[in-house]
Design goal:
This protein is of the alpha/beta class. It is about 30% helix and about 30% strand. It contains ten helices and 14 strands. It is elongated.
Length: about 290
């Protein structure tokens, strides 16, 4: 069953395109990645999905219900962490979280304390005394306190130090194991790589690719590093399937998709000192998709 279904979703701001014909689905129980640089259309898609803005055309459903028509009902089962969080400055953290909890049925208030302990958040501090990172922690606890069936995260780790990021990832994995479906939007590709099984890549408001992360890394590309003792003839590697070719002094770097034996054949008779073949990072693959589409 698909928890989220987005079909040809389009949003224009006057004559300016926000997103155009965005289509993807998120299966129940998965952690789905939504990646692209800032300004690519991730937040616009999420806001339309949450009926915070109305799309120009297309449709989106959550739990099989139209997001616009049933928006207020659906939000009871959604935990949302926006990219920017804002609160009433004079309130204490606990007051903010209790106020948020009052919008949901049957919130166990011990869960607020448990989540705060995990994220090392002081509930007695005033909002205006918090750093940006600690305000983000408030947003995380606020988004999870009602044990939502669907968690939507929009650039969630901004302001968190590496230790807190890891605690946050562990927390999301725990909620996922308990049955929550997760839509994880980020421009930090290593984050998506750690958490997600599938990913949608968005560029300039349109979906470039939807793919299994493991397939992207292991079945499509190999990363080559070739170190030579003499002059390198770059034209020798003018082959279909080679991308991201760079030369750094006597070392050649490139990504290759295809039969690896074609590369081995090109190495015959070459003054090769060292060769490294490895799996490319998601970021390198991601940049390849962008360059390919330009």
């Amino acid at each position: 069953m698909n928890v989220i279904e987005i079909n040809q979703l389009t949003k224009y701001y006057g004559k300016h395109r926000g997103i155009e014909n965005v289509t993807f689905s998120v299966e129940e129980g998965e952690i789905f990645g939504f990646i692209g640089p800032n300004g690519a259309g991730k937040s616009t898609t999420i806001r339309a999905l949450l009926s915070l803005i109305h799309p120009t055309s297309g449709s989106a459903t959550i739990f099989g219900k139209d997001c616009i028509k049933y928006g207020s009902e659906l939000r009871r089962d959604i935990g949302y962490l926006p990219s920017e969080v804002f609160y009433y400055e004079h309130m204490k953290v606990l007051e903010v979280l209790k106020y948020s909890a009052s919008f949901y049925d049957n919130v166990n208030y011990t869960r607020i304390q448990t989540l705060a302990d995990v994220m090392d958040l002081d509930l007695n501090k005033r909002i205006d005394d918090l750093s940006y990172g600690n305000k983000k922690k408030v947003g995380i606890v606020q988004g999870l306190l009602h044990e939502p069936k669907l968690i939507i995260l929009d650039e969630p780790t901004g302001g968190l130090d590496p230790l807190m990021q890891q605690k946050f990832f562990d927390l999301i994995r725990t909620e996922n194991k308990k049955g929550a479906t997760v839509l994880f939007s980020s421009h930090i590709l290593s984050e998506v790589q750690k958490l997600c099984g599938r990913v949608a890549i968005i560029k300039d408001g349109t979906i470039v690719k939807i793919e299994n992360i493991r397939d992207m890394q292991k079945h499509n590309y190999k990363k080559f590093t070739l170190e030579y003792s003499g002059v390198i003839d770059v034209h020798h590697f003018n082959l279909d399937g080679i991308t991201n070719l760079t030369l750094d002094k006597n070392t050649l770097h490139f990504l290759f998709k295809g039969d690896i034996n074609r590369i081995v054949e090109r190495l015959q008779g070459q003054a090769l000192l060292n060769m490294l073949v490895e799996e490319p990072s998601l970021e390198e693959i991601f940049m390849h998709y962008y360059q390919k589409e330009d």
